[in-house]
Structure formats: structure tokens, C-alpha cells
Amino acid sequence: MKQEDSTISIGDTNSATNHAQRRKVMNEKKTGFPRRISYSLIFLLLIFVGVPLMIKNIYGVEEAFKKTPAGKIEVKIIPESKVMVSEGEGNYYRTRNYLFRRLFNYISENNVAMTTPVEARIENAQMKFYVGTKDKVKALQDQGSVRIVTVPQRTVVSIGIRGVYTEGSFEKARAQLEQWLKDNKEYRQSGDVYAVFWDAPFMPWFLKRSEVHIPVEKTEKQ
Hints:
Helix content is 41%, strand content 26%. The protein has helices at residues 2-58, 92-109, 167-183; strands at 62-63, 73-78, 81-87, 115-116, 118-121, 126-130, 146-151, 154-162, 187-189, 194-197, 209-218. The strands form two sheets. Strands 2, 3, 5, 6, 7, 8, 9, 10 and 11 form a nine-stranded antiparallel beta sheet that branches. It has a two-stranded parallel ribbon with strand order 1-4. The relative contact order is 0.15.
């Protein structure tokens, strides 16, 4: 009887030990899995956010004017500008890649630095690249479908946007500006509404910045 009791005791001890080891392994798996997910998320964040920002900083480009903060409506002055213009037929959002390729080929062939923002007229599609300070002294000429134009100083009411570059986003912002003009009678529209895009296509959507502008002028006091 004593030997039998001893055997049972040893078996119970081994079983308890094995159970404890299995539980330890399971706990390690449970804690290890979330940790691997965390590392993966950090890696993806570095790829999709860190790399675009690093590229933007390394290859920093000249800005033609100051951004309007996201979500804010303001009246601001756009200084006289020298721009490269490409035009197409129909809606901008259906022809933008074609227009961009024309302008990019022009600056590549003429050694002109890329600047921001890119300006776009939505109806009767048009895209503009701003000529930077260092390139304004160059005798840039019309070439193919690209024209060189000097745009006079203008006053605009501007709304800042954060997010994807879509027609729906543009229309929503335009409606907000039109309502602002109805509420602020001291200004009236003096030109066509247009969009302004600050970031390149590789920038994550939640970091992209854009604006919608309506040219305005002061109304005459009665």
C-alpha cells in the first residue's frame, strides 16, 4: 500500500508540472502575439508615414504661399506668380494624370524645380505648376501644350482641407465657401473657384493637405 501511495503521489506531481509548463507556454503565446502585432503596426507606420515625410523633408520644395490651416476659412492674398499651365477637356479629376505628365515633362526637360502647391481648375480641366524664385530668371517659353503665364496678385477666400483629393471633398469645400460669401456681404466672388493641392500622391491620405479658393473683391459701400 505504501508503494502504491508513493506512485500516485509521483504521478500527481508530474501531471501538475506538465500542466504548469503548458500553461506557461500558452501564456507566452498569448503575450507574444499582441507584441508581434504591435511591432508590425510600428513598422507599417514607419513605412507609410515616416518614409513619405522623410522624402518630403529631404527633397523640400518651395511653397508659393502659406497654407490655410485645415478646417479654417480665411481671406488671403496670393502674390503675383509665374506659372506653367496645361489644359484639357472635361472634368479635372478625369484628366489630372494626363495634365500632370505634360507639366512634369516640361520641368524635367527645362531643368525647372518642382514647387508646391499644384493648382487646378475643375471644370474645363486646367493644372498649374508655380515657377520657383530661382527659376523666374530663366527665359521659359511655351512648349507643346504647356504655356507660361504671369498671374496677377489676387485676393481669395480659402478653406483648408485635410484628407483625400476627391471631387466630393472639393464640392463640399466649395459649398462651405459659397455659404461664407452669403454670410459675409463685404466680399463678392470675382473669379472661378479652383483647388490647391499641397502634397504628392505617395503621401498617406490622412496627411494630405489641400485648399479650395474663390477669388474675391471688396463690395462697394452704398
